[in-house]
Amino acid sequence: MRKEKNMYKKGITTKNNILKASKELFYENGYNNTTVHMIKDRAEVSLSAIPYYFKEKDRILQVIYTDFLSSIYKLVQKHMKEPIDSYLLHFLASKIYYYIIHDDANNDRFYREVTFAQSNIRILYPFMDTVHHNYARDFNIQLTEGELKYYRLTDAGGRREIMMDYYNDPASYDFNELIDYITSIVPNLMGIDKEVSREYARKSTAFAKEVDYSAIKFLV
């Protein structure tokens, strides 16, 4: 039993070391210039350890993005004095999410490279599926699983195309408007009143100015 417990602890340590090394290298070199061999060397693990714990490089991305969003969710929930619906929760979290990425050049480079290289369906699934289900629950919207799938695809595709266009010509965009729009794509399609989206956009901007989120890191 003790041997099994020690092996489990060793496994957790190895996985965390791989994740930490990946974040450091992604931050220093970007997504495109970071290889699995570089991660192996930085984490001081065997090459086989990476696919064993993460299967592929993209799985590391999924953990990074999901952990990052989850940390922001916890921060938002900690600061809210009263219960809020899932749409406002995600709006508040999204504003901080994009601010943290945008305000650090290395974070922004990594996010840009991933955006051009990957569909965020793979990266943020099933996190965003849960978010969309919660929208439907909180606003009493009856949707089939097929409709939710289409919303997921529309959200991922629309978000990626908008971000790619933004990175090609950032001067043509107001960054706050961009965040507000991509956060409200699915809720608006679901039929949630657009005035709700506008109100939540205003609240999210004010909230991001008031709360201290400096302890939350995207990469390092």
TrEMBL record:
A Pfam family it matches: TetR_N
DNA-binding region: 35-54
All residue ranges annotated as the HTH tetR-type domain in the record: 12-72
Molecular-function GO term, any one: DNA binding
InterPro entries: Homeodomain-like_sf, HTH-type_Tx_Regulator, HTH_TetR
Source domain of life: Bacteria
Protein name: TetR/AcrR family transcriptional regulator
Organism: Alkalibacter rhizosphaerae
